[in-house]
Amino acid sequence: MAVAFSWPCKVSVAVYSKWGRKVLAPRPNCARCGAPMAFDGGYPRWVREAGKCYSVFVRRARCRGCGIGEALLPDFVLARRRDSTAAVGAAVLASAGAVLAEGSTSLYQGVPARTVRSWRHRFAERAGELSRFFEALAAERGASALPGHLAGAPAEQAVVAIGRFWQAAHRRTGEVPPAWFLANLVVGSGLLGARVDLPWPCKSRHICRSRAP
Ligand SMILES: [Zn+2]
């Protein structure tokens, strides 16, 4: 199965879209054998954010040894979703007790209510798994243990775990993407996907970029 490699992108979806087929992407190492992969064409796809649809070109890489192919997804893209990482994040986080910047709801304006409900439902469904996963990553990075059992719905607990992981990564690494983006990078753009799957370990060199929230 082809896997997705999510990478921290320095520009917005609007700017990335304007680059067309000239987009740059990092060249990853093969997840199976560790050899540097080769670029292998790409494909166009749509990304929707703040009521606009952008056509973006996603580059692909392939391992010459194993034959494994990967889509190199900029971090504003969610695997198998048309709406951007920020759009889905704003909708999911708002319903899970997070305090967001003013105007965040405009990121998913025009998205059908049933689609927004499906994101929130998907996130809530996986919340227990995500909580355990991100708490473990936070602990690995030196976060202190939670004092007892957290109150709140499972989705709220998952958001707390993502926040704790982000804080621990930030302390350890310095500059990291915003929490929702970082969480998405770690799970290979599949925060709402079928299961938590780590296609590559969370290494500081992958999360060394900062972006205004
Ligand atoms: Zn390989």
Textual characterization of the structure:
With 213 residues, the protein is an alpha+beta fold. It is built from five helices and four strands. Strands 1-4-3-2 form a four-stranded mixed sheet. The protein has one domain. It binds zinc ion. Zinc ion (ZN) binds next to loops.
Characteristics of this structure?
213 residues; 5 helices; 4 strands; binds zinc ion; four-stranded mixed β-sheet; alpha+beta
Helix/strand-derived class? alpha+beta
C-alpha Rg, in Å?
17 Å
Order of strands in the sheet with the most strands? 1-4-3-2
| Principal-axes shape call | globular
Topology as a string of helices (H) and strands (E): EHEEEHHHH
Q: Enumerate the distinct ligands.
A: zinc ion
Q: What is the average of the pLDDT values?
A: 84
User: In what range is the share of β-strand residues?
Assistant: 15-25%
Major sheet characteristics: 4 strands, mixed
**Total number of strands:** 4
In the predicted model, the low-confidence regions spanning at least 5 consecutive residues are 195-213
Task: Outline the secondary-structure elements.
Layout: E1 3-7, H1 13-18, E2 38-49, E3 52-62, E4 69-74, H2 85-94, H3 113-140, H4 154-173, H5 179-186
Parallel strand pairs: 1-4
Antiparallel strand pairs: 2-3, 3-4
Compose a concise summary of this entry.
The protein is of the alpha+beta class and about 210 residues long.
